Amino acid sequence: MLEVVLALGVPLLIGSTGFWLAIHENHKRVDRWDEAATLLEFEVTDRSRSYWGLVYLEARKGAVTIRIANAGRNRRHAPTRIVLSAQGPPGSAGLRVRRESTFQPGAREVEIGDGVFDATFSIEGPARVVAVLLDAQVRDLLTRLNLACSRVGIIGHEIVVELFDGMIPDVLPLLLDIGEGFIRKLDEPRKHLADNARQDPEPGVRVFNLRLLARDFPGEPETGEALRSACADPSPQVRLQAGKSLRAEGRDVLLDLAERLVDDECSAQAVAALGEGLPSERAQEVLRAALRWRRLQTARACVERLGRSGGAAAVDVLARVLAREEGEVAVAAALALGEI
Fold first, then answer.
1. What is the gyration radius of the CA atoms in the chain, in angstroms?
2. DSSP assignment, residue 70?
């Protein structure tokens, strides 16, 4: 009889002990979440009453809400999932930011011009919303979250991360900074785009914001001010975008880019953007310099410009190019002569 009692009682005792230990651990876990949220001045609005299985805590600070929960039912060492909700500007419901490794083929991905960030995350959503929300500060915060968490992403108005509890005191302030930043950008998209175009440390992002300003807010004071300021930007790419967007007012900027030959691609695009605004004589001067310094994209653009202008002088120049050059420049010269 004793053997039967022991055979039945010992497993029940062990199981019961494990059950109460799990409840005790989960209770302490929610208490730690509560403490981390309270330190950031969140007001706890709800928390688990039962501590078996799925446990959670909900809190609010102003217009920002968080929900903290274990990411797997009945798993004592499941990671913690934090979902922070904060209303963004109109259209932000369509925003998706995920790790690049989770990118779905066929989705319409947005490149914002920050090479490292674009390689780390896949971005979907309205371009204007993407530009306004993913400024330099938010990109830095998301990059830091990506290093600290096993999962990180933005789905509409929600920032979602998964991590282990020990990282929560470090991660929660970063999430709060993103959420409060979203709320500050609820209105005045022109101002935020103009600020990004002037201040972002990445030239590609400054170009992205300038292009959106010129496309979505042509003729607005903020747009004109940002474009004129960008004419003195240290990046040729930014000056090129400003010159193209300013049209006649940007002609001098484009001429300077075409003639300086600092960046072959930018100089070539400046020549193409100038079109008839680049006189044939100056196009010949740029062509000679481009060939001397082997800026072949610019040389090809000048050859194409001369082909459209025609005239005996252009024919002589193109014939010499065809005789001396090889590859794409020679092909362009032959086509240009054919046009004339």
1. 30
2. E
Say how far apart CA 269 and CA 259 lie, in whole Å.
Answer: 12
Give 22-48 pLDDT, tens digit per residue.
Answer: 687 888 999 999 999 999 999 999 999
Q: Is the dihedral of CA 21, 26, 31, 32 positive or negative?
A: positive
* Alpha-carbon span 181 to 158, nearest angstrom: 13
- d(C-alpha 191, C-alpha 209), whole Å: 11
**Which residue is it, tokens 């999962």?**
151
DSSP state, 52? S
Question: Is 0.90 surpassed by the pTM of this model?
Answer: no
DSSP H helices, the chain, are 2-39, 115-120, 127-133, 136-148, 168-184, 189-199, 203-216, 221-230, 236-246, 251-260, 264-274, 280-292, 296-309, 312-324, 327-339
Name the nearest CA neighbour of 132 among 213, 26, 47: 213
| Rounded (10°) angle between helices 296-309 and 327-339 | 10
Q: What is the dihedral of CA 170, 96, 55, 68, to 10 degrees?
A: 30
Contacts 24+ apart (CB under 8 A), 166-174: 168/32, 168/33, 168/36, 168/68, 168/80, 168/82, 169/36, 169/39, 171/82, 171/145, 172/36, 172/37, 172/40, 172/66, 172/82, 173/40, 174/141, 174/144, 174/145
> pLDDT tens digit string along 209-221?
999 999 999 999 9
Please state the φ and ψ torsions of residue 234, each to the nearest 5 degrees. Answer: -65, -20
8 A C-beta contact, residue 34 and residue 44: yes
8-state DSSP, 66: E
